[in-house]
């Protein structure tokens, strides 16, 4: 019996059958930490899924925030993705190299900005190529489109809101960073930043949601949440290092039908770099 999978994840067979569809838009949303020693732009130029465009997470972020990967304004987002030929009415499939690292962040951004028909490619580009499926180095021809945003501001948690959540426990906090960074036993990759976690947070490392690049089944996702002490009947705010991998937890929650969740966009880059924020260490 096949286990039930996320409704927001599509397989390589599904995508390959639809290559060339007029309303389909494919996005390479790869981004990596320095430790990964992978260059997403170079990999895209060397070979990408036919028809895919490259979404640069650094370029699409709000540079004025002073933080990495901050969500841009709806107008800036619309202009950026419109130049890539993407409309909110398209069927959008996003992917990254390993499967579930940075692609869920793009999935989340498009949904927050009002695109309803967005999916993540199971297995990522690594899985796609290992199956012998087509890739091309040829540049994708793009016709600019109009993206009309409908921004769901309620899906994003601000620093002020996060301080209230930590203070009153009104939302469960799910942290996607590695367990070592969460407990304070490992240094943060950004210089001068304290490690540890927000008081009351639970550890749900981003790498635990997929096996060999394939998103886990709904029962397995439910068990991950339960084992971490997350009650799916209560609201959740997700966080990570810079707002990228928090979206993996968001994807898992929404796959399970959990709708009362938000993403702390400043994440640990904001919380851990300030001198006026409470930090806990050790396991919860």
Radius of gyration: 18 Å
Query: How many strand elements?
Result: 12
Query: What general form does the structure show?
Result: globular
Order of helices and strands: EHEHEHHEHEHEHEHEEEHEHEH
Unreliable parts: none
**CATH architecture descriptor name of the largest domain:** 3-Layer(aba) Sandwich
What is the rounded distance between the termini?
Answer: 36 Å
Biggest sheet character: 5 strands, parallel
User: How many separate domains make up the residues?
Assistant: 2
What structural class do helix, strand and pairing data support? alpha/beta
Give me the number of helical elements: 11
The strands making up the biggest β-sheet line up spatially as: 1-5-4-2-3
CATH topology group of the largest domain: Oxidized Rhodanese, domain 1
Task: Tell me the helix content.
Answer: 25-40%
Percentage beta strand: 5-15%
CATH class assignment of the largest domain? Alpha Beta
Which oligomeric state applies? single chain
The whole-number mean of residue pLDDT values reads 96
Q: Quick one: CATH superfamily of the largest domain?
A: Rhodanese-like domain
